[in-house]
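TICKET: design request
STATUS: open
ATTACHED STRUCTURE:
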């Protein structure tokens, strides 16, 4: 689990025009994504993983900028990023299948599961569905998407990006994350845990980006959200693997593994929900109002 602040390099500052910071943040992540894609063939699985991390940071930043952008500009950025991420989403799952299997093996023990046979089955399926040539074509398409956004970075208007809008966007994300947390807690449905995961990962980035308003509190929330996001990511990967195995014609062979996977995922449920209680320990309105007061106090000249 990487520290969000370290991965971003810098954050918004009350001493700097937020428009300039926003452009620099986007440029850093786009350049990083492009660098990953330029060496894609060296390690395709690793490249997909690293690209998706840049993509998630970019989408978290976009949500902060949304109030200061026109609907047209925000929509163009969001759609391009969404499309780029979707090109790799199924292939990403394929690379994670084996890693998730090893995680389950470490937590469930040998038992009655045929781990080696399952690993070979997963690897053969991934290689059949996602041969290197197909992935390389996708990488070229994604690289073109990133280059389009680098052009937009020079053309789009950032001048209306303001601190009050950043605070509003952080509060909106916090409120949405809390809502998904409550839904996951009440339903225990993997789909709700998946939605909660996305909001949590955005929150980890957004708290880090506006940390200057309340450094101790927002640094804590960013770290907790990053830890929770990793946990929910593992939860999602197990749920995806379970679904794949249940739909397989060989599903009877995987029955012991499916039982173990469900037990491990239930344990992750409990751990994630306990972390959620810590992360969403403040009413969303009170949280936003506290950030607004901090901004006004820091922005108002003394004397």
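STATUS: resolved
RESOLUTION: sequence designed for all positions
ATTACHED SEQUENCE:
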């Amino acid at each position: 689990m990487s520290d969000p602040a370290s991965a971003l390099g810098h954050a918004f500052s009350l001493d700097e025009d937020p428009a300039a910071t926003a452009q620099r943040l986007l440029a850093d992540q786009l350049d990083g994504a492009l660098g990953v894609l330029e060496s894609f063939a060296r390690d395709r699985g690793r490249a997909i993983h690293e690209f998706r991390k840049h993509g998630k940071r970019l989408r978290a930043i976009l949500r902060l900028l949304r109030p200061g952008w026109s609907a047209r500009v925000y929509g163009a950025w969001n759609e391009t990023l969404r499309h780029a991420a979707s090109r790799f989403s199924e292939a990403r799952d394929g690379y994670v299948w084996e890693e998730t299997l090893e995680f389950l093996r470490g937590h469930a023990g040998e038992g009655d599961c045929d781990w080696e046979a399952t690993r070979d089955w997963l690897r053969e399926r991934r290689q059949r569905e996602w041969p290197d040539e197909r992935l390389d074509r996708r990488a070229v398409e994604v690289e073109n998407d990133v280059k389009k956004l680098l052009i937009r970075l020079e053309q789009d208007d950032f001048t209306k990006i303001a601190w009050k809008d950043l605070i509003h966007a952080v509060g909106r994300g916090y409120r949405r994350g809390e809502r998904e947390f409550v839904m996951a807690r009440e339903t225990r449905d993997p789909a709700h845990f998946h939605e909660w995961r996305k909001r949590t990962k955005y929150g980890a980035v957004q708290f880090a980006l506006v940390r200057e308003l309340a450094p101790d509190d927002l640094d804590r929330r960013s770290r907790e959200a990053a830890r929770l996001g990793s946990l929910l990511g593992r939860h999602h990967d197990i749920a995806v693997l379970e679904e794949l195995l249940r739909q397989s014609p060989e599903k009877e062979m995987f029955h012991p593994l499916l039982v173990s996977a469900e037990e491990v995922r239930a344990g992750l449920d409990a751990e994630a929900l306990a972390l959620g209680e810590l992360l969403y320990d403040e009413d969303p309105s009170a949280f936003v109002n506290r950030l607004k007061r901090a901004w006004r106090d820091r922005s108002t000249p003394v004397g």
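CLOSING REMARK: The first helix runs from residue 4 to 8. Residues 14-92+131-159 form a domain with the Four Helix Bundle (Hemerythrin (Met), subunit A) fold (CATH 1.20.120).
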